């Protein structure tokens, strides 16, 4: 009777708490046979509206990427590459300062496998993912595929696998709304438009280089003088401009065709490629600064020039090709940088980029041919053209370190931390300021007796920008360049330096309670529940449990914008014992501490698994952030809360819990 009553009580408790267990992702699965040894495992996810689940290829340092793990692959089968994904979204996260890749509304994964042991009939797969909206949830779904009957089953625990054909979910239809496709299309359009605008202005920058600018009046004069009528001259110049566009668009198409629409997108976070791009941009910068010229073989230009004498449309096309070859020493670095950036976006971005670049390059030739009188208003060629080229060289050098920073962040080597990166940028833009003011001269500069007003203003602008960067060495956020330097936590001194009382010295750090560490805003926080609770009993203070995650965006928002309030910070430092439990902490538990959850049936193998199971089991919740105030008997002092961006509301919640503790 007692057991029956207990079971009834637990059932009621489960039903009462179920409302807080959030399951925004529903999975179905099926298996397809390709050959006797090859199969495709297919996973379909329906994601609730406004939630998003991170891709396998989401950038490090942001939300947790999806992981596909095989439980019984050894000596039985092997995965062929990574799982193929359906369409994803890309969005810059200004909290983690990385571009994240995620699914909305629905997702599909296709994993190819090759069987090596014909006697094995089961494939056991675990999907581990993070899904976020106002809160974040760490998801874990386990599947078993039967190779013999081609059935699939979602299971709670691999140790108790029973495959039953009637449980096959392959017939479940995906009813995800179509809004995900439209949102993805809008995001893609915005990304391509950005590439086009950058490329267009890059084309204008290329126009103002010594290799291209002098050719505008020469080429337009050639068309107007050689053509029998004004209309013919305009027509030829128009064809010339179209030819320039065709040449560069073909170049973008070749990049897309050779590397694939999305191949370079996946490589954009690859360490080797980021280092290669860094070296490439440094070479380009050196060329622009006057160390050497990047030139195509003269024989190419001579052959193309001879073809240009043929006349007609073919001759004009070869004239445009001759322009591209002759001006390569100036346009090559710009085109190369643009292609690197565009190709890393994937899809048709290289084509769009080359169209924008060539359009800006071609427009002056067409417009001046239509209105030759405008040629008289053009400034004469001179040393200012080399100034433009050098200016671009400094920019290339600064951007190069972004790629090196990406590689360092992926490897977590802490070689190019935030302070080092900013110091390099301060040096680069400081040197550019001195150059514009005439204090530094480079090999191809003309003698400078005075500087123009335009050059003076540009020098003042770059000097202002250099001064703006300096406080970043002491922890200033530098929102104008958000996304370029490494994030704030990737720093020699994450808590700042030179900031007076905000910094904890090593001697003060040694006085921290056992098991405590400094958290956000130097708040003392425990990362182990038992240690934190024991300390709270020593000092007779209530406990605030902070269920959080390293990759939880809204957890960081709460810390940055709510906990930073002086009243709240004072409470967290003085009136409560803070226990921050990270549910995505991947460190494995000792073998003796691993267990199978009685609530979910899942294996608890990591510290993060342990705290996630603790949150689900005790508080019937699985989202982060999630805050609980308890007394020393581990009883709730008030109702727990989740993401609460309203400072006054969160403050009132804290104060009510502390008041109940004192009663």
TrEMBL record:
Which keywords does this Swiss-Prot/TrEMBL entry list? Answer: Cytochrome c-type biogenesis, Membrane, Signal, Transmembrane, Transmembrane helix
Give the signal peptide, or none. Answer: 1-18
**Which superkingdom, per the lineage?**
Bacteria
Task: Provide the Thiol:disulfide interchange protein DsbD N-terminal domain boundaries.
Answer: 36-143
Q: Which Gene3D superfamilies would you find in this protein's record?
A: Glutaredoxin
Domain named Cytochrome C biogenesis protein transmembrane: residues:
195-405
Entry protein name: Cytochrome c biogenesis protein CcdA
Q: Where in the cell is it found?
A: Membrane
Q: How does it sit in the membrane?
A: Multi-pass membrane protein
Q: Where are the transmembrane segments?
A: 192-216, 237-259, 271-292, 313-335, 347-371, 383-401, 421-442, 454-474
């Amino acid at each position: 009777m007692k057991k029956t009553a207990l079971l009834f009580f637990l059932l009621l408790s489960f039903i009462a708490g179920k409302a807080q267990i959030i399951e925004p992702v529903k999975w179905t699965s099926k298996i397809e046979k390709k050959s006797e040894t090859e199969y495709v495992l297919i996973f379909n996810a329906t994601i609730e509206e406004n939630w998003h689940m991170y891709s396998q290829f989401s950038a490090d340092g942001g939300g947790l990427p999806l992981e596909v793990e095989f439980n019984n692959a050894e000596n039985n089968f092997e995965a062929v590459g990574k799982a193929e994904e359906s369409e994803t979204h890309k969005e810059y996260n200004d909290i983690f300062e990385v571009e994240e890749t995620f699914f909305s509304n629905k997702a599909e994964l296709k994993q190819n496998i090759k069987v090596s042991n014909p006697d094995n009939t089961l494939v056991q797969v675990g999907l581990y993912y993070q899904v976020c909206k106002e809160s974040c949830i760490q998801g874990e779904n386990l599947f078993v595929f039967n190779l013999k009957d081609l059935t699939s089953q979602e299971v709670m625990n691999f140790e108790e696998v029973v495959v039953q054909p009637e449980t096959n979910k392959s017939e479940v239809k995906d009813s995800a709304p179509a809004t995900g496709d439209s949102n993805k299309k809008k995001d893609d359009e915005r990304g391509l438009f950005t590439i086009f605008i950058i490329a267009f202005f890059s084309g204008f920058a290329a126009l103002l280089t010594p290799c291209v600018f002098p050719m505008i009046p020469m080429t337009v004069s050639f068309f107007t003088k050689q053509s029998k009528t004004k209309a013919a001259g305009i027509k030829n110049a128009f064809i010339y401009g179209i030819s320039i566009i065709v040449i560069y668009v073909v170049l973008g198409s070749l990049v897309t065709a050779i590397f694939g629409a999305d191949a370079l997108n996946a490589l954009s976070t690859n360490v080797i490629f980021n280092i290669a791009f860094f070296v490439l941009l440094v070479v380009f910068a050196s060329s622009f600064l006057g160390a050497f010229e990047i030139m195509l073989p003269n024989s190419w230009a001579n052959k193309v020039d001879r073809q240009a004498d043929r006349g007609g449309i073919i001759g004009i096309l070869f004239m445009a090709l001759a322009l591209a070859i002759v001006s390569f020493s100036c346009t090559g670095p710009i085109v190369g940088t643009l292609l690197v950036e565009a190709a890393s976006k994937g899809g048709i971005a290289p084509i769009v980029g080359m169209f924008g670049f060539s359009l800006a390059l071609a427009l002056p030739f067409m417009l001046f041919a239509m209105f030759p009188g405008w040629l008289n208003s053009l400034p004469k060629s001179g040393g200012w053209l080399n100034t433009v080229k050098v200016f671009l060289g400094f920019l290339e050098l600064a951007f190069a370190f972004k790629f090196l920073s990406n590689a360092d962040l992926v490897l977590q080597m802490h070689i190019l931390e935030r302070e080092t990166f900013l110091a390099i940028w301060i040096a680069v833009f400081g040197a550019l300021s001195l150059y514009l003011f005439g204090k530094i001269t480079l090999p191809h500069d003309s003698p400078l007796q005075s500087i123009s007003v335009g050059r003076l203003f540009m020098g003042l602008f770059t000097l202002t920008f250099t001064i703006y960067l300096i406080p970043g060495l002491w922890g200033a956020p530098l929102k104008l360049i958000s996304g370029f330097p490494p994030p704030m936590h990737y720093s020699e001194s994450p808590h700042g330096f030179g900031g007076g009382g905000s910094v904890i010295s090593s001697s003060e750090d040694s006085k921290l309670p056992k098991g405590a560490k400094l958290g956000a805003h130097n708040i003392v926080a425990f990362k182990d529940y038992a240690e934190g609770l024991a300390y709270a009993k020593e000092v007779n203070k209530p406990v605030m449990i902070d269920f959080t995650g390293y990759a939880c965006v809204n957890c960081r928002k709460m810390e940055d914008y709510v906990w930073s309030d002086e009243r709240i910070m004072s409470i967290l430092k003085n009136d409560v014992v803070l226990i921050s439990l990270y549910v995505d902490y991947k460190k494995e538990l000792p073998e003796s501490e691993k267990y199978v959850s009685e609530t979910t049936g899942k294996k608890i193998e990591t510290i993060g698994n342990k705290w996630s199971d603790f949150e689900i089991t005790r508080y019937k919740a699985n989202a982060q952030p999630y805050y609980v105030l308890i007394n020393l008997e581990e009883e709730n002092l008030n109702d727990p809360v989740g993401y609460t961006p309203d400072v006054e509301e969160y403050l009132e919640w804290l104060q009510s819990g502390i008041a109940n503790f004192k009663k």
